[in-house]
Design a protein that fits this description.
- The chain is α+β, with helices and mostly antiparallel strands.
- It has a domain of 145 residues: Immunoglobulin-like, CATH 2.60.40.10.
- The strands form two sheets. Strands 3, 5, 6, 7, 8, 10 and 11 form a seven-stranded mixed sheet that branches. A four-stranded antiparallel sheet has the order 1-9-4-2, with no helix packed on it.
- A hairpin with a 5-residue loop joins strand 6 and strand 7.
- Helix 5 packs antiparallel against helix 6.
- It starts with a helix and ends with a helix.
Amino acid sequence: MMRSRLSRTILKGSSWPVACGCLCVMLCSLCAGAAHSAPQTSAQTPAPPTNVSEARANICSTPVAIAPSSTQGAALGKLTTDPTQLDVKMFDGSAASLSVVNQTSTVIRKLSVSTSVLLDGKTGERIPATAWEADFDATAPLSPNQRTDCRLPLTLSNHAGAYTGTLRIDGDSGFEGNLPLTIRIRGPYFPVWRDLPLIFLTIVFGVGWSLSMTLDYWFTVKRPLLDQVVTLKQIQTALAIFLSNLAKWEQKNGITLINTDIAVTYDKSDLDGLLLNLASKTVADMQQAVERFTTSSALNDEFYTAIELSVTKIPLANLAALAKQLDAVSRNQSVAAYRTALLSVLTAPPAAPALAAIAPPAFAFQPGGNLSKATVASLHRRAVLMDWLKMFVVAVVVWLTAYTVYYAPNPSFGTSLDYIALFLWCLGLTATGSQIISTVPKP
């Protein structure tokens, strides 16, 4: 229960990145699910035109003559294309361009262009077959040794992938040609918002990297700090119990142990102030505090054991003098040395009571130079600003690395596996994230 309250108190400033990261993951999942559930027609181009003049205007240009090819005899009877294979990257549009050359001896008045069903071998997604027609009746036909340039409005998919198949070209005189066709799409793909894959990449990068940084900050800074605070809270309780028991002992026996009272009260006051101002404390500060107050608590245990033992073993007439001698033992030593000093007092012959001289404080306060509140605040703001600047520069460098490694060289980026790989890469950028990933056994 105490650890839970401390977590809420100390770590409330570091929990919001995790919540924002989870919200972004849910948003990306909803968007990706919407893309995968959307009908294929949402990313398709308008249906192929049926009007003859419109078809010709939209599909193929007016034929133009070309220089006779030196291989015309070998190519006789074929429709050839340039290029000989189509690899279309859907970045700026949804149309493919190619030139059709009539290397037959027959005039062609109509071209029929069609695609087979295109399949992405990685995801199994398909693009249905599409067909177009170009009718040259209205103008000059496609004569031998003439070329026409065609622009094909391709049917696309919302899903990322490299879709492969065949593009077939048929002439009305029975001549045909075909060439391999590959369409590479980044996803989720929507014609009205072509930058959506890049936005998704940035969102997944932000979620993975911020989650990695948050986990690393928790396990390397906040968790050790929380452990130290829990220990200090326990010591704080022990100091309060000790002061209460010491006051009861003094009241019962009519003896005031002023040195121990003052020392423990100051320790308790310092610890209370420390626990009320945790925002500016580092792990090193808390470790030093734990070491100091742990020693103080151990000295208190030794002292209380000694005075309780003196009540049972020492005659009442000598109790006050002995208690004063125990109270006068210096606390500026190790626990073992303090125990030895207390035992020497308990086992020594009784002596006349004497007032113990109050030793000067071991560490006198020395005012520092130019440590005004304004100066400290200015230095703190400068340090925070530089920390944020460093984080921004690191984020830019990491994003550029993700862009150049995952997005730019992959025209079909955008499958769920691509985003998962990007997320895991971002998560493993810190030592804690890398440790989390390395603990997962390889399948």
